[in-house]
Fold this sequence. Notes:
The complex is a heterodimer.
Chain A: H1 15-20, H2 24-31, H3 57-70, H4 85-94, H5 125-144, H6 153-164, H7 177-190, H8 202-207
Helix pairs in contact in A: 2-6, 3-4, 4-7
Chain B: H1 2-24, H2 46-54, H3 56-60, E1 73-74, E2 81-82, H4 99-108, H5 123-126, H6 131-144, H7 166-174, H8 188-198, H9 204-207, E3 230-232, E4 235-237, H10 252-261, H11 272-279, H12 286-299, H13 313-320, H14 327-335, H15 337-340, H16 358-361, H17 366-374, E5 376-377, E6 389-390, H18 399-411, H19 422-436
Antiparallel strand pairs in B: 1-2, 3-4, 5-6
The structure holds heme C (3 copies).
Amino acid sequence: MTNPSSQPPAFRTSRRRFLGGTASVAALAGLARPGEAQDQPDPRAALDGYTPEFLSAAEWAFIVAATARIIPSEGDGPGAIEAQVPVFIDRQLAGEFGAATDLYMEGPFVADADPNFGLQTPLTPAEIYREGIAAFDQWCQQEQGSSFADLDASAQDAALTALSRGEAGLAPEVRDFWTHLLQNTREGYFADPMYGGNAGMQAWVYIGYPGARANFREWVGRDEPYPMGPVNIAGERA
Amino acid sequence: MRTFLRIIGVLVVIAVVAFLAFLFIPVQRTPAQAALPDSWTPEEGQGEYAMRLGDCMACHTAPGGEPFAGGREIESPLGVIYASNITPDNQTGIGGWSLDDFRAALYDGVGPDGTHLYPAMPYENFGRISEEDVRAMYDYFMNDVPPVDNAVSETALSFPFNQRWGLRAWNWVALSDAAGFTAESTDPELSRGEYIVEGPGHCGACHSPRNAIMAEAALDGSDPQFLAGGEIAGWTAPALRGPNSAIRGWSADEVAAIMGTGRNAHSAVNGEMQLVVQDSSQYFTDEDLQAVGAYLVSLNDDGPAPEVTDDGATEALLASADPSMALGARLYLDNCNACHFANGQGADEVFPALAGNSLVTAAQPTGLISMILNGSELPSTAARPYRLRMPGFAARLSDDEVAALASFVRQGWGNAAAPVEAGSVADLRDQGDAATH
Ligand code: HEC
Ligand code: HEC
Ligand code: HEC
């Protein structure tokens, strides 16, 4: 994959390139194309049947709105909403990831230490989301006059850009909120569907990844697309 | 072990005919096959080794139980047969048995009081065990095995199968070959191999077909029925000779490898054969493994190795990754290709070849279906300690999918076995669920 930072900033940066790299801020700005998908059916309808396990209604509305800007539905592949990324995030927060089961969570905590010292917050990822969403929504309210989910797409992109640059006034304890949100959005997009995201293996189909087959020895070195669709861990085929 | 018990169904018929005669003539015990001086004593370890050749431990030790203390349940459609406690405990084991009593259990299937043993104890084959090995084992069980007080549950089959005297009639027919071993070949290696295979190794108990009264159709290698293929617990125990021989084209070294380590360049052991390797043949000396290999290969000298009829179409189809391929092939790519590869050849001593594999093409697809549903783990052996494992796919594949996949591998790469029905898969899945709950 191409590293976006080596490319001139392009308005139509492809989603694939965006996801492959880390220079998300520049790319985010480029992805803001408000109002383009107005006449299509609302892909959020697919999420309606889901009852969040961890997120409150307001938090859920935020996650749906934010992931929809990080991987938008307009473009040449499924967006975060089609892939049901919010379901993935909610389930992760309700589970061991949210509870920091695998993290060392003893003090001392020096939340404002240099980021080079790694995670320093006393909060679990679930708490970071909870407090981070509340604080960021409040910031949106102050700056833009409404909570994030109610902003229009370009205002949302501007707000996320500020968040990603550490300019949304978040306390040090929740400064990793954006990093988690971006990372978990990517994970939900590409992880096996058993975790709730990547619905119907759409993300895998889109990039031509064969999934939990993990076997294509015969194709190594052949300079042509691999034709067979993916299989997931449960054995479903797409 | 189930097949042994179908034997019993036939008993009744014969028993009724011969009833009175049998009741009144006392049981004859087969005498020692060689006159050893009373002063004869086994060499260090000889008795334990003979026990390994005979695999006494596998049947006579309950899962998690003390060695030889019995209680292992041998399933049969008529009920459970409990293997006896054969430690030298006076009350619950074979303490106090004379050498003649011990020999009679091995050769004739009778206890000291004349009680007949069910042929789940393979005395049809043990009649060929040499007097040295009988004496050495007797010495081992009486002096080296610690006595264990363990009263084994009484085997209680329903009438008429609980009438042990009926076995006498069966024995009269089944044991019509005189006891004792005579080698066919004068070559010492071949005759040693033949001895192990026919006698203590009781390979024929699973690998020979059964006749009308469910006795082994042949007990020695001169008869082409011997090792011509049998069935055990619903699995095919493949023919080890003749046109369908599982080992056709194998070298003696390759046979020795699979018996000693559970795997070789072609294949790996599964089902009941894993227990044989785990508890018995992995302990064979290199000379004995070679002897068994040489003898089995000599039974396959009568024809050329099978022609390879694989035209490469299966490999080409899999390698194409064509999304329109049929379900079975697609499932192979999704689930099996990573280890067994598009050419169905696997990798020597790690992933068995599925092309030309006797378990894949067995008349009874039970073994193949069970492999796909439950996976399997090879026994750890001294030479190959790592337990190679194949995962089970029960959670990933529906009955229809398993049937399509099994049918595909049974017909791929030149294999030509009948397809598998989803109903057979459902039955085995239910049995597996029942066994684990
Ligand atoms: C395939 C399983 C199997 C193997 C192998 C086997 N046995 Fe047995 N054996 C049995 C069963 C089952 C019984 C009990 C039969 C019955 O109750 O009618 C038995 C009974 C016996 C008895 C009679 C015990 C009594 O109290 O009546 C002796 C002795 C015995 N076995 C010795 C041996 C020896 C020695 C070996 C090894 C050379 C051996 N067995 C191998 C299954 C086996
Ligand atoms: C308790 C029953 C039983 C006994 C006893 C037994 N086998 Fe087997 N054997 C099987 C079954 C079932 C299979 C098929 C499963 C498999 O392929 O591993 C098999 C398979 C084999 C194979 C082919 C392995 C493969 O994967 O291609 C060989 C060789 C073999 N047995 C040799 C022997 C020899 C030699 C003896 C005697 C020392 C013996 N067996 C005793 C049940 C038995
Ligand atoms: C992760 C690697 C792996 C995968 C995937 C795998 N196998 Fe295996 N397979 C093994 C190993 C290792 C063995 C030997 C272990 C054993 O027989 O107990 C084996 C043994 C077998 C055997 C028995 C061969 C013999 O000689 O007795 C069959 C049949 C088989 N596999 C079929 C399949 C099928 C069909 C699939 C797809 C559903 C599959 N395997 C997927 C690793 C794998």
